[in-house]
Automatic annotation (TrEMBL):
<dbReference type="GO" id="GO:0009073">
    <property type="term" value="P:aromatic amino acid family biosynthetic process"/>
</dbReference>
<protein>
    <recommendedName>
        <fullName>Shikimate kinase</fullName>
        <ecNumber>2.7.1.71</ecNumber>
    </recommendedName>
</protein>
<keyword id="KW-0547">Nucleotide-binding</keyword>
<feature type="binding site">
    <location>
        <position position="82"/>
    </location>
    <ligand>
        <name>substrate</name>
    </ligand>
</feature>
<keyword id="KW-0028">Amino-acid biosynthesis</keyword>
<feature type="binding site">
    <location>
        <position position="60"/>
    </location>
    <ligand>
        <name>substrate</name>
    </ligand>
</feature>
<keyword id="KW-0479">Metal-binding</keyword>
<comment type="function">
    <text>Catalyzes the specific phosphorylation of the 3-hydroxyl group of shikimic acid using ATP as a cosubstrate.</text>
</comment>
<feature type="binding site">
    <location>
        <position position="18"/>
    </location>
    <ligand>
        <name>Mg(2+)</name>
    </ligand>
</feature>
<feature type="binding site">
    <location>
        <begin position="14"/>
        <end position="19"/>
    </location>
    <ligand>
        <name>ATP</name>
    </ligand>
</feature>
<dbReference type="GO" id="GO:0005829">
    <property type="term" value="C:cytosol"/>
</dbReference>
<dbReference type="GO" id="GO:0005524">
    <property type="term" value="F:ATP binding"/>
</dbReference>
<keyword id="KW-0418">Kinase</keyword>
<dbReference type="Pfam" id="PF01202">
    <property type="entry name" value="SKI"/>
</dbReference>
<keyword id="KW-0057">Aromatic amino acid biosynthesis</keyword>
<dbReference type="GO" id="GO:0000287">
    <property type="term" value="F:magnesium ion binding"/>
</dbReference>
<dbReference type="InterPro" id="IPR000623">
    <property type="entry name" value="Shikimate_kinase/TSH1"/>
</dbReference>
Length: 174
């Protein structure tokens, strides 16, 4: 399987996977897929309502299924969900199918970005619980092929530009 035509952005809720992913896809002239949106479309419900009505396990099952679907596409940037890269099966699939990039946003900045958004993200129950989850997840995110830490004040467009530069070098080499 060619790994040069898919990019998977991974990282914690609020690190900018969706926003940066859209900007990156535009720059590369590639398609963009947001995994959370795909799952929402299958259920016809928001992430919050999927968790509430069907439970997290049902969400994770569909998330894994939608991840497989993305590996059938070429020239695509995938914004994963915050938990997608944690199960080993998902991680192995990503590592075999494309290039993974961890958006390594420090906790303080995540907190600044996500006030009042807790009810949309069922696993962001309180800052304390979310910090615990963030710490548990970091070792998994660090298994991504590349880690990119947004610079102070660097917006999603600028960050996408930096990732595009990194990828262009890699894509030329494959
Ligand atoms: N580089 C950036 N600088 C400042 N704000 C940003 C940046 N990237 C994204 N944001 C803002 O942070 C918030 C969260 O971004 P986004 O929804 O893209 O994160 P996400 O990683 O997709 O989160 P989730 O896992 O919950 O889907 C949004 O309000 C977005 O505008
Ligand atoms: O971190 C997580 O586990 C999640 C992040 C979001 O992107 C959604 O996939 C959902 O809210 C779960
Ligand atoms: Mg997102």
């Amino acid at each position: 399987m060619s790994t040069g035509t898919r990019v998977f952005l991974v990282g914690f809720m609020g690190c900018g996977k969706t926003t940066t992913g859209q900007a990156l896809a535009r720059r590369l002239g590639w398609a963009f897929v947001d995994l959370d949106t795909q799952v929402e479309q299958v259920f016809g419900l928001s992430v919050r309502d999927i968790f509430a009505q069907h439970g997290e396990a049902a969400f994770r099952e569909e998330e894994a299924r939608q991840l497989v679907e993305t590996t059938r596409l070429e020239r695509v940037v995938v914004a994963t969900g915050g938990g997608t890269f944690v199960p080993e099966a998902n991680r192995v699939l990503v590592q075999r199918s494309g290039i993974s990039v961890f958006l390594d946003v420090p906790w303080g900045e995540i907190l600044r970005r996500l006030p009042n958004k807790w009810e949309e993200r069922p696993l962001f129950r309180s800052p304390e619980q979310a910090l615990e989850l963030y710490r548990l997840r970091l070792p998994f995110y660090r298994l991504a092929d590349f880690t990119v830490r947004p610079l102070f004040g660097e917006d999603a467009e600028a960050l996408a530009g930096r990732i595009a530069l990194l990828l262009r070098g890699l894509l030329c080499a494959t």
